[in-house]
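During the no-cost extension, the postdoctoral fellow (Dr. R.K.) reprocessed legacy sequence entries with the updated structure-token encoder. One reprocessed record is reproduced below for audit purposes.
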Amino acid sequence: RQSEERLRRTHAGTDDIIFAAASLDPSAKPAYAALEGLHASFKELMADVDAEEALLQARRELSGKIARLEAAQVGGGALERLADDVRAIRAENEAITRGDSLSRRPSPGTSPDR
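Re-encoded structure tokens follow.
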């Protein structure tokens, strides 16, 4: 990544300058230690950013998979209605094979004796 490369170059240049100064001036040694701490913190930050990007990518992929699965499903309870229809058809088939055809059933509002 471009930001990582820029950070590496900046650290290398600053490291060289402060290291050279620290060998001549003892007060530059704490600055060098601070630079190293800052560099370590930035490395951790970049690792966190990379991990966050990986999580976001995984989330996008999962969201896409969920959308594809939802689109592939029969929506609006149609699958349940189909299952109910299949059960009703099986019940009718069983009734027919037992000899209880629908034509033998009395019409609504009439008595079975007619």
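The helical segments are 2-24, 28-72, 78-98. The chain has a mean pLDDT of 80. The remaining legacy entries will be reprocessed before the final report is submitted.
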